[in-house]
Amino acid sequence: MKKAILSRRETFSSSHRLHSRSLSEQENKEIFGKCNNPNGHGHNYVLEVMLYGPIDPVTGMVMNLSDLKKILQDEVLDVLDHKNLDLDVSGFQDKPSTTENLAVWIWEKLAKKVPLLHEVKIHETENNIVIYRGD
What we know:
Strand 4 and strand 5 (129-132) form a beta hairpin. It is built from 4 helices and 5 strands; from the N terminus they run E-H-E-H-E-H-H-E-E. It is of the alpha+beta class. The protein is 30% helix and 30% strand. The protein has a 5-stranded mixed sheet. The two termini are 26 Å apart.
């Protein structure tokens, strides 16, 4: 059976402060710089989710995009969009809300409902991109 990669792109806006409770205030400032601003800062994130699997011979699809869109909306976008990651999103109170940790968080939310999940890619900025593949 032929296989394909299916990709879905979404956007969301969130704020956060890069800060680790395991570090002193001075260490946080040295490591995270201006991103350690006590008032936080925001990003317009671009999320790309990729699935890899067989093309169903009947439907011609790896997964129905309408189903994937709903899962992304319910599990990720409704939780993250226009939220403060550190204050509003369960899972970031005890770890820095880096894009790396955000990619893992998204993977863990989606993997339960999207068994063919292959990759989570987050564009924090045009230049800063994180890819996570479940490792």
